[in-house]
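Appendix B: complex inputs.
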Amino acid sequence: MPSPSFRLEPLPGYTPTIGRLVGILLYTRKTTLAAVEGLSTAELDHLQDDSSNSIGALLAHIAAVERGYQCVTFEERPPSAREQAAWEPALTLGAEGRRLLRHEPLEHYVHELNEARRLTLEGLAARDDAWLERTLRAAPAMNAHWAWFHVAEDEINHRGQIRCLRARLGSAATHTRA
Amino acid sequence: MPSPSFRLEPLPGYTPTIGRLVGILLYTRKTTLAAVEGLSTAELDHLQDDSSNSIGALLAHIAAVERGYQCVTFEERPPSAREQAAWEPALTLGAEGRRLLRHEPLEHYVHELNEARRLTLEGLAARDDAWLERTLRAAPAMNAHWAWFHVAEDEINHRGQIRCLRARLGSAATHTRA
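Resulting structure:
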């Protein structure tokens, strides 16, 4: 796996435009993992207020969004009913996420993220820049390039929220642990 | 100005890779403006807690970051002392931002964002994909492509925070107005 850097440029193993996109995905993931490094299960489960998502639920969301876009882009189909049911609490967040996405250590979420990412990079390495620009049959309003940018965009959006939540964990984590 | 869409592809008026990047910048800005639509000055000034940034300060930050990267990429120089001083509260946020970035209506922030963006699009339209990949003299760790992705990335990060802050304005805005 190429290292994230402060450059976007073609990457070995990918066609040029896909390589630049992979640079975005890798850099984004690096910052997400940095934002959650060292968090305990209690901190990952903490709810800042009644309508908050926990940091753990946001990590599960990031992995589920990536899985969903693998179906839409690589397999050109919407998620199956079974997949949708499995990913629903993480995709939707809110009350169901608060109820179900809990009691897991950081390693659990990192494993989910790594497994999703491995398949994404395999899928992108097997495709080319012409594919990247094509309209998606399972989502005709978008092309594959936008879809994969959006996966990074959604992750960055939630990483911004994770940073805010983490900065407020001080008293919170103490409270959750008590 | 081309319309944002759910496609990333070459855009008229830009070289191909710059066009895809402009697609990211435009889509990102559209979502930021949607996230703050209709907010009052009191809501833009509201501080969620003692260490929060207001939504107005985050909008000022987004515009200041874009101005800063115009210096670094288009003019190949760091911001001047005068520019740095003018942008400092917005770039740094925190206590100075809380003190100084207040009492402005949404139109003020949108004007700042639009003016910054106009110069960005002019600068990108005047350059080509070879330029986009070049190392920046004023920031040798990065190339121009990463720098402009980072402008969008920072905006998306703060848009995520703005969405959280706005969702919690209900009681907050009432309190600020009281």
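Residues 172-178 of chain B have pLDDT under 50 and may be disordered.
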